[in-house]
Write a structure and sequence with these properties.
- The chain has 367 residues and is α/β, with parallel strands linked by helices.
- The chain is 41% helix and 19% strand.
- It has a 6-stranded parallel sheet with strand order 4-15-14-13-12-11. A 3-stranded antiparallel sheet has the order 1-2-3.
Length: 367
Protein backbone atom coordinates (compact mmCIF):
# COMPACT_ATOMS: atom_id res chain seq x y z
CA UNK A 1 0.00 0.00 0.00
CA UNK A 2 1.15 3.56 -0.71
CA UNK A 3 -0.58 5.01 2.35
CA UNK A 4 -1.52 3.65 5.75
CA UNK A 5 -3.39 5.79 8.24
CA UNK A 6 -3.34 4.92 11.92
CA UNK A 7 -5.76 6.64 14.29
CA UNK A 8 -4.06 6.55 17.69
CA UNK A 9 -6.38 8.64 19.83
CA UNK A 10 -9.38 10.93 19.37
CA UNK A 11 -10.67 13.50 21.86
CA UNK A 12 -14.27 14.38 22.66
CA UNK A 13 -13.87 17.65 20.77
CA UNK A 14 -12.70 15.84 17.62
CA UNK A 15 -8.96 16.40 17.86
CA UNK A 16 -6.96 13.34 16.81
CA UNK A 17 -3.48 11.96 17.11
CA UNK A 18 -2.61 9.88 14.05
CA UNK A 19 0.21 8.49 11.95
CA UNK A 20 0.40 8.84 8.20
CA UNK A 21 2.61 6.12 6.70
CA UNK A 22 3.90 7.28 3.32
CA UNK A 23 6.51 5.71 1.01
CA UNK A 24 9.25 8.14 2.11
CA UNK A 25 8.32 8.84 5.72
CA UNK A 26 6.16 8.02 8.71
CA UNK A 27 4.48 11.38 9.42
CA UNK A 28 3.15 12.11 12.90
CA UNK A 29 -0.01 14.20 12.81
CA UNK A 30 -1.41 16.76 13.30
CA UNK A 31 1.41 18.19 11.23
CA UNK A 32 2.41 21.55 9.79
CA UNK A 33 4.04 21.30 6.37
CA UNK A 34 6.57 24.00 5.34
CA UNK A 35 6.04 25.27 1.81
CA UNK A 36 8.86 24.67 -0.68
CA UNK A 37 7.44 26.45 -3.71
CA UNK A 38 10.20 25.90 -6.27
CA UNK A 39 11.83 22.88 -4.67
CA UNK A 40 13.16 24.95 -1.78
CA UNK A 41 11.73 26.16 1.51
CA UNK A 42 12.94 29.72 1.02
CA UNK A 43 16.25 30.55 2.73
CA UNK A 44 16.52 27.22 4.60
CA UNK A 45 18.65 24.22 3.58
CA UNK A 46 17.24 20.70 3.66
CA UNK A 47 19.52 19.50 6.46
CA UNK A 48 18.27 22.34 8.65
CA UNK A 49 14.67 21.36 7.93
CA UNK A 50 15.54 17.85 9.06
CA UNK A 51 17.09 19.19 12.26
CA UNK A 52 13.93 21.24 12.89
CA UNK A 53 11.90 18.04 12.62
CA UNK A 54 10.04 18.68 9.36
CA UNK A 55 8.71 15.31 8.18
CA UNK A 56 6.85 16.51 5.09
CA UNK A 57 7.17 19.60 2.89
CA UNK A 58 5.30 20.96 -0.13
CA UNK A 59 6.34 21.43 -3.73
CA UNK A 60 4.48 23.68 -6.18
CA UNK A 61 3.32 22.00 -9.37
CA UNK A 62 2.82 25.22 -11.34
CA UNK A 63 6.25 26.69 -10.57
CA UNK A 64 8.15 23.42 -11.03
CA UNK A 65 6.31 22.76 -14.31
CA UNK A 66 7.50 26.12 -15.64
CA UNK A 67 11.03 25.83 -14.24
CA UNK A 68 12.98 23.53 -14.51
CA UNK A 69 10.16 21.43 -16.04
CA UNK A 70 8.54 18.23 -14.82
CA UNK A 71 10.10 16.03 -17.48
CA UNK A 72 13.58 17.23 -16.51
CA UNK A 73 12.79 16.40 -12.89
CA UNK A 74 11.49 12.97 -13.89
CA UNK A 75 14.71 12.26 -15.79
CA UNK A 76 16.66 13.14 -12.64
CA UNK A 77 14.73 10.60 -10.59
CA UNK A 78 11.86 12.73 -9.28
CA UNK A 79 11.57 15.69 -6.97
CA UNK A 80 12.88 13.93 -3.84
CA UNK A 81 16.15 13.07 -5.51
CA UNK A 82 16.42 16.36 -7.41
CA UNK A 83 16.21 18.50 -4.25
CA UNK A 84 17.90 15.92 -1.99
CA UNK A 85 14.94 15.54 0.37
CA UNK A 86 14.55 11.95 1.63
CA UNK A 87 11.41 12.57 3.67
CA UNK A 88 7.79 12.92 2.57
CA UNK A 89 6.52 15.47 0.06
CA UNK A 90 3.17 16.75 -1.17
CA UNK A 91 2.58 18.64 -4.42
CA UNK A 92 -0.39 20.92 -5.00
CA UNK A 93 -2.30 20.68 -8.27
CA UNK A 94 -1.42 24.10 -9.69
CA UNK A 95 -5.05 25.14 -9.38
CA UNK A 96 -4.47 27.85 -6.78
CA UNK A 97 -1.58 29.41 -8.72
CA UNK A 98 -3.66 29.46 -11.88
CA UNK A 99 -6.48 31.01 -9.80
CA UNK A 100 -4.13 33.77 -8.68
CA UNK A 101 -3.31 34.59 -12.33
CA UNK A 102 -6.83 35.91 -12.91
CA UNK A 103 -5.73 38.41 -15.55
CA UNK A 104 -3.65 35.82 -17.39
CA UNK A 105 -6.05 32.86 -17.52
CA UNK A 106 -9.16 31.57 -19.25
CA UNK A 107 -11.21 28.76 -17.68
CA UNK A 108 -13.20 26.30 -19.82
CA UNK A 109 -14.84 22.93 -19.22
CA UNK A 110 -11.72 21.23 -20.54
CA UNK A 111 -9.20 23.07 -18.37
CA UNK A 112 -7.39 26.37 -17.88
CA UNK A 113 -5.43 28.30 -20.45
CA UNK A 114 -2.91 30.67 -18.89
CA UNK A 115 0.21 32.65 -19.57
CA UNK A 116 3.42 32.14 -17.65
CA UNK A 117 4.24 34.89 -15.16
CA UNK A 118 7.90 34.34 -16.15
CA UNK A 119 7.89 34.96 -19.89
CA UNK A 120 4.27 35.27 -21.02
CA UNK A 121 4.32 31.92 -22.86
CA UNK A 122 0.95 30.18 -23.28
CA UNK A 123 0.11 26.94 -21.43
CA UNK A 124 -2.95 24.75 -20.96
CA UNK A 125 -3.63 22.77 -17.78
CA UNK A 126 -6.24 20.04 -17.72
CA UNK A 127 -6.89 17.64 -14.84
CA UNK A 128 -5.07 14.97 -16.80
CA UNK A 129 -2.07 17.21 -17.45
CA UNK A 130 -1.88 18.20 -13.78
CA UNK A 131 -1.77 14.50 -12.89
CA UNK A 132 0.96 13.83 -15.46
CA UNK A 133 3.08 16.67 -14.06
CA UNK A 134 2.60 15.54 -10.46
CA UNK A 135 3.34 11.90 -11.29
CA UNK A 136 6.58 13.02 -12.95
CA UNK A 137 7.47 15.06 -9.85
CA UNK A 138 6.80 11.97 -7.75
CA UNK A 139 5.76 13.42 -4.39
CA UNK A 140 4.17 11.00 -1.90
CA UNK A 141 0.88 12.91 -2.11
CA UNK A 142 -0.60 14.59 -5.19
CA UNK A 143 -3.69 16.80 -5.28
CA UNK A 144 -6.65 16.70 -7.62
CA UNK A 145 -6.92 19.62 -10.05
CA UNK A 146 -9.52 22.06 -8.78
CA UNK A 147 -10.78 25.59 -9.29
CA UNK A 148 -10.33 27.79 -6.25
CA UNK A 149 -13.40 29.98 -5.73
CA UNK A 150 -12.57 33.59 -4.95
CA UNK A 151 -14.06 35.59 -2.06
CA UNK A 152 -16.55 37.10 -2.24
CA UNK A 153 -18.39 34.98 -4.83
CA UNK A 154 -22.14 34.98 -5.41
CA UNK A 155 -24.02 31.71 -5.34
CA UNK A 156 -24.20 31.25 -9.11
CA UNK A 157 -20.42 31.67 -9.37
CA UNK A 158 -19.80 29.26 -6.47
CA UNK A 159 -22.14 26.65 -7.98
CA UNK A 160 -20.44 26.80 -11.36
CA UNK A 161 -17.00 26.61 -9.76
CA UNK A 162 -18.09 23.58 -7.73
CA UNK A 163 -19.46 21.89 -10.83
CA UNK A 164 -16.10 22.29 -12.56
CA UNK A 165 -14.15 21.11 -9.51
CA UNK A 166 -16.26 17.96 -9.14
CA UNK A 167 -15.92 17.11 -12.83
CA UNK A 168 -12.20 17.74 -12.68
CA UNK A 169 -11.89 15.63 -9.52
CA UNK A 170 -13.36 12.64 -11.33
CA UNK A 171 -11.08 13.15 -14.32
CA UNK A 172 -8.06 13.62 -12.05
CA UNK A 173 -8.79 10.41 -10.18
CA UNK A 174 -9.41 8.32 -13.28
CA UNK A 175 -6.21 9.48 -14.95
CA UNK A 176 -4.19 9.17 -11.76
CA UNK A 177 -5.32 5.59 -11.14
CA UNK A 178 -4.42 4.65 -14.71
CA UNK A 179 -0.89 6.12 -14.48
CA UNK A 180 0.12 6.28 -10.79
CA UNK A 181 2.58 3.40 -11.25
CA UNK A 182 4.71 5.67 -13.48
CA UNK A 183 6.07 7.56 -10.45
CA UNK A 184 9.90 7.87 -10.75
CA UNK A 185 10.67 5.88 -7.56
CA UNK A 186 8.09 3.13 -8.20
CA UNK A 187 10.61 0.27 -8.46
CA UNK A 188 12.89 1.60 -5.72
CA UNK A 189 10.05 1.48 -3.19
CA UNK A 190 8.82 -2.00 -3.96
CA UNK A 191 6.04 -1.03 -6.32
CA UNK A 192 4.51 1.59 -4.03
CA UNK A 193 2.76 4.48 -5.73
CA UNK A 194 1.68 8.01 -4.97
CA UNK A 195 -1.54 8.98 -3.22
CA UNK A 196 -4.18 11.39 -4.49
CA UNK A 197 -6.27 13.70 -2.30
CA UNK A 198 -9.53 15.30 -3.40
CA UNK A 199 -10.21 18.96 -2.60
CA UNK A 200 -13.49 20.18 -1.10
CA UNK A 201 -14.63 23.50 -2.59
CA UNK A 202 -17.96 25.37 -2.62
CA UNK A 203 -17.09 28.91 -1.65
CA UNK A 204 -18.60 30.10 1.62
CA UNK A 205 -21.89 28.21 1.17
CA UNK A 206 -22.49 25.45 3.69
CA UNK A 207 -24.68 23.30 1.47
CA UNK A 208 -22.21 23.49 -1.42
CA UNK A 209 -19.39 22.51 0.90
CA UNK A 210 -21.43 19.53 2.12
CA UNK A 211 -22.25 18.49 -1.44
CA UNK A 212 -18.61 18.72 -2.45
CA UNK A 213 -17.44 16.64 0.53
CA UNK A 214 -20.07 13.95 0.06
CA UNK A 215 -19.39 13.57 -3.67
CA UNK A 216 -15.62 13.37 -3.15
CA UNK A 217 -16.02 10.72 -0.45
CA UNK A 218 -18.07 8.65 -2.89
CA UNK A 219 -15.14 8.79 -5.33
CA UNK A 220 -12.91 7.23 -2.64
CA UNK A 221 -9.75 9.35 -2.69
CA UNK A 222 -6.75 8.44 -0.54
CA UNK A 223 -7.33 11.56 1.58
CA UNK A 224 -9.31 14.79 1.56
CA UNK A 225 -8.38 18.46 1.62
CA UNK A 226 -10.48 21.52 2.33
CA UNK A 227 -9.47 24.21 -0.15
CA UNK A 228 -10.65 27.67 -1.09
CA UNK A 229 -9.99 29.14 2.36
CA UNK A 230 -7.73 32.01 3.45
CA UNK A 231 -8.68 33.86 0.26
CA UNK A 232 -9.81 37.01 2.04
CA UNK A 233 -12.79 35.78 4.07
CA UNK A 234 -13.20 36.61 7.79
CA UNK A 235 -11.57 34.13 10.15
CA UNK A 236 -14.87 33.07 11.74
CA UNK A 237 -16.14 32.13 8.28
CA UNK A 238 -13.02 30.01 7.69
CA UNK A 239 -13.72 28.21 10.96
CA UNK A 240 -17.36 27.73 10.04
CA UNK A 241 -16.51 26.07 6.72
CA UNK A 242 -13.97 23.74 8.33
CA UNK A 243 -16.42 22.76 11.07
CA UNK A 244 -19.08 22.07 8.44
CA UNK A 245 -16.91 19.75 6.39
CA UNK A 246 -14.84 17.77 8.93
CA UNK A 247 -17.68 15.53 10.20
CA UNK A 248 -18.43 14.47 6.61
CA UNK A 249 -14.91 13.20 5.90
CA UNK A 250 -13.94 9.58 6.67
CA UNK A 251 -12.30 9.04 10.05
CA UNK A 252 -9.91 6.50 8.58
CA UNK A 253 -8.33 8.88 6.06
CA UNK A 254 -6.22 12.04 6.45
CA UNK A 255 -7.82 15.50 6.50
CA UNK A 256 -5.88 18.46 5.17
CA UNK A 257 -6.78 22.17 5.34
CA UNK A 258 -4.87 24.08 2.67
CA UNK A 259 -3.16 27.43 3.10
CA UNK A 260 -3.68 28.14 6.84
CA UNK A 261 -2.77 30.05 8.97
CA UNK A 262 -1.53 32.01 12.01
CA UNK A 263 -0.11 30.06 14.98
CA UNK A 264 -3.28 30.20 17.06
CA UNK A 265 -5.31 29.14 14.03
CA UNK A 266 -3.31 26.02 13.22
CA UNK A 267 -3.51 24.96 16.86
CA UNK A 268 -7.28 25.46 16.89
CA UNK A 269 -7.76 23.54 13.64
CA UNK A 270 -5.61 20.68 14.92
CA UNK A 271 -7.80 20.43 18.02
CA UNK A 272 -10.87 20.29 15.75
CA UNK A 273 -9.57 17.21 13.93
CA UNK A 274 -7.47 18.57 11.07
CA UNK A 275 -4.45 16.33 10.42
CA UNK A 276 -2.41 18.39 7.94
CA UNK A 277 -1.89 22.11 7.33
CA UNK A 278 0.44 24.28 5.29
CA UNK A 279 1.03 28.00 4.88
CA UNK A 280 3.65 30.36 3.45
CA UNK A 281 3.11 32.72 6.40
CA UNK A 282 6.04 31.66 8.64
CA UNK A 283 8.56 31.91 5.81
CA UNK A 284 7.11 34.99 4.11
CA UNK A 285 6.71 36.91 7.37
CA UNK A 286 10.28 36.02 8.35
CA UNK A 287 11.69 37.68 5.25
CA UNK A 288 9.90 40.89 6.27
CA UNK A 289 11.16 40.76 9.84
CA UNK A 290 8.04 39.42 11.55
CA UNK A 291 8.79 36.75 14.14
CA UNK A 292 6.20 34.58 15.89
CA UNK A 293 7.02 34.08 19.56
CA UNK A 294 5.48 32.87 22.81
CA UNK A 295 5.07 36.55 23.70
CA UNK A 296 3.22 37.39 20.48
CA UNK A 297 4.31 38.78 17.13
CA UNK A 298 7.62 40.61 17.12
CA UNK A 299 8.68 43.03 14.37
CA UNK A 300 12.44 42.69 14.64
CA UNK A 301 12.95 45.89 12.61
CA UNK A 302 11.74 47.95 15.59
CA UNK A 303 14.22 50.51 16.92
CA UNK A 304 13.70 49.32 20.49
CA UNK A 305 15.57 46.09 19.63
CA UNK A 306 18.72 47.91 18.50
CA UNK A 307 20.59 47.01 21.71
CA UNK A 308 18.38 44.21 23.01
CA UNK A 309 20.69 41.33 23.87
CA UNK A 310 17.90 38.92 24.71
CA UNK A 311 16.93 36.02 22.45
CA UNK A 312 14.12 36.48 19.92
CA UNK A 313 11.88 34.27 22.09
CA UNK A 314 12.97 33.50 25.68
CA UNK A 315 10.78 30.38 25.70
CA UNK A 316 12.15 28.97 22.44
CA UNK A 317 14.98 26.44 22.25
CA UNK A 318 15.58 26.66 18.50
CA UNK A 319 19.11 27.07 17.14
CA UNK A 320 18.50 30.78 16.50
CA UNK A 321 17.16 31.64 19.95
CA UNK A 322 19.97 29.69 21.61
CA UNK A 323 22.66 31.67 19.81
CA UNK A 324 21.57 35.08 18.53
CA UNK A 325 20.17 38.28 20.03
CA UNK A 326 17.32 40.48 18.93
CA UNK A 327 19.87 43.25 18.37
CA UNK A 328 21.83 41.09 15.93
CA UNK A 329 18.73 39.98 14.01
CA UNK A 330 17.65 43.61 13.74
CA UNK A 331 21.11 44.59 12.49
CA UNK A 332 20.93 41.90 9.78
CA UNK A 333 17.57 43.28 8.63
CA UNK A 334 18.86 46.86 8.59
CA UNK A 335 21.96 45.80 6.64
CA UNK A 336 19.87 43.70 4.20
CA UNK A 337 22.09 40.70 4.89
CA UNK A 338 20.79 37.45 3.32
CA UNK A 339 21.44 35.70 6.63
CA UNK A 340 18.57 37.73 8.06
CA UNK A 341 15.93 35.84 6.09
CA UNK A 342 17.55 32.52 6.93
CA UNK A 343 17.69 33.02 10.70
CA UNK A 344 14.21 34.56 10.91
CA UNK A 345 12.77 31.73 8.85
CA UNK A 346 14.44 29.03 10.93
CA UNK A 347 12.94 30.50 14.08
CA UNK A 348 9.44 30.87 12.63
CA UNK A 349 9.44 27.31 11.28
CA UNK A 350 10.71 26.02 14.62
CA UNK A 351 7.87 27.88 16.32
CA UNK A 352 5.20 26.44 13.99
CA UNK A 353 6.60 22.92 14.15
CA UNK A 354 6.87 23.26 17.93
CA UNK A 355 3.17 24.10 18.20
CA UNK A 356 2.28 20.90 16.40
CA UNK A 357 4.69 18.85 18.52
CA UNK A 358 3.07 20.19 21.68
CA UNK A 359 -0.46 19.61 20.38
CA UNK A 360 0.42 16.05 19.35
CA UNK A 361 1.69 15.33 22.83
CA UNK A 362 -1.44 16.76 24.44
CA UNK A 363 -3.76 14.85 22.09
CA UNK A 364 -1.87 11.62 22.72
CA UNK A 365 -2.46 11.90 26.46
CA UNK A 366 -6.01 13.27 26.31
CA UNK A 367 -8.93 11.12 27.49
Amino acid sequence: MALQFNLIRETETGGRRTQLCLPHQLVETPVFMPVGTAGSVKAVAQDVLETLGAEIILGNTYHLYLRPGHEAIRRMGGLHRFISWPRAMLTDSGGFQVFSLSKLRKVTEEGVQFRSHLDGSAHFFTPEHSMDVQIALGADIAMAFDECTEYPADRARAENSLRLTMAWARRSLDHFRAHRHEVPWHEEFGGQTQNLFGIVQGGMYRDLRRESAERLVEMDFDGYAIGGLSVGEPRDLTMEMIAEVLPLLPKDKPRYVMGVGYPDEIEQYARMGVDMMDCVLPTRAARHGLLFTSEGRLNIKGKRYAEDQGPPDPACDCMVCRRYSRAYLRHLMQAAEPLSGTLNTIHNLAYYLGIMKRVRAELASAH
